[in-house]
Amino acid sequence: DNVRLPTADQIAAFEAADPIIPPIDMDRINRAKLHTGPYRAVPGDVLEFTMPALLRAVSGAEIRSAREQNGREEPFICRVSDEGTIALPAVGELDAAGKSLAEIEVSVIKAYASYAVNRPSIYVRVLEYRTAKVYIAGVVEKPGVYTLRADQMTLVSLLTEAGGISAA
Fold first, then answer.
1. How confident is the model over 149-167, as pLDDT tens digits?
2. Could you give the CA distance from residue 30 to residue 87 in angstroms, rounded to a whole number?
3. Are 58 and 64 in contact (CB under 8 A)?
4. Which pLDDT value is given to residue 60?
5. pTM of the model
6. Residue 102 phi, psi dihedral angles, 5° rounding
7. Residue of 28, 32, 38 whose CA lies nearest to 105
8. Which of 21, 37, 64, 99 has CA atoms 20 to 30 A from the CA of 7?
């Protein structure tokens, strides 16, 4: 089969050779991170809205209760559906997936414009990010399972979580 075995000199040279370790410039890797702008909601995220209670009221009893709260605002919590929408009281479903939090706030304010005399103050934040478990093995400082958010699903983010590439 024309296989030639190495000579004794070749084996000795191989065993005496130092391992080849490519230089790793972590600063260069960090500079290579993509800066994609503001976080954009994805299906599975849980959003928390801080908005006037009156906007969440649908029934007469809820309206009376909202008026009695004297400006106290309780959060409204909802999950971005698999279709990319959120369901809000009185206005129904609005598109949310792919939008920044500021864009979602503007959409909600516009949706409630006909229900409010003054422009309502609405604030939204991600209460719970959709995550995925990712496993990394090999020449990294801390191999194992890591939980990454949807906006962190890059090799650079995973390597950063794992402590970078190991020197040995």
1. 988 888 888 999 999 888 7
2. 38
3. no
4. 52
5. 0.65
6. -65, -40
7. 38
8. 21
pLDDT in tens, 77-120: 999 999 999 999 888 999 999 999 999 999 999 998 887 777 87
Tokens read off for 89: 């009281």
Distance CA 144, CA 126 (A): 27
Average pLDDT over the chain reads: 84
Lookup result for tokens 């422009």: 119
Question: Please, where are the H alpha helices in the chain?
Answer: 8-16, 26-31, 53-56, 60-68, 101-111, 155-161
Residues forming beta bridges with residue 94, ordered by sequence position: 86
3 state DSSP class of 160: helix
pLDDT, position 48: 94
Distance CA 121, CA 14 (A): 71
